[in-house]
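User: Please run a holo structure prediction.
Assistant: Happy to. Please share the sequence and the ligand.
User: Here you go; the ligand is cobalt (II) ion.
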Amino acid sequence: MILKIRKYGDKVLREMSTPVEKIDEEILKILDDMVETMKNAQGVGLAAPQVGINKNMFVLDVGDGKIRKIVNPEFIEISKEEVENEEGCLSIPGIYKKVRRAERVKLKYLNEKGEEVVEEGTDLLGRAFQHEYDHLKGELFVDKISPVAKRLVSSKLSKLKKETEKEGGN
Ligand code: CO
């Protein structure tokens, strides 16, 4: 089932998510629906708050032939070295800006079978880990762009926020 993607201005995107206590049928169904929704929108990643659910989980398709379903992620290593690259977000359509992120991270999480996985991410995977993890803390990539870039997108963001509010997205 394709879920509604919440857009910039929706308060659910700004709330803190909470850990998943048990990977039960309901959680598995949401993860499947999130994958379907991400594919339909041709996204690289989708976090639970983006479909209105404040739970610590996200799905990823970084194009390496592996769809990741990530539950209760936690960084166990974050490199000091940073790299800058362009990002976008399904909740912020039409805006793409450069964001500085750690070059390499190590993420510990549970997969959909409840198995603990530790995975190192660089390049797109490392970036996606960090971008999606931020969603679980109520943070968006536009919070992290340079002041100049922020000024450039501020009217687009206000317009998006107004549209979301008009639509009744809380
Ligand atoms: Co996003």
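The two ends are 22 Å apart (CA to CA).
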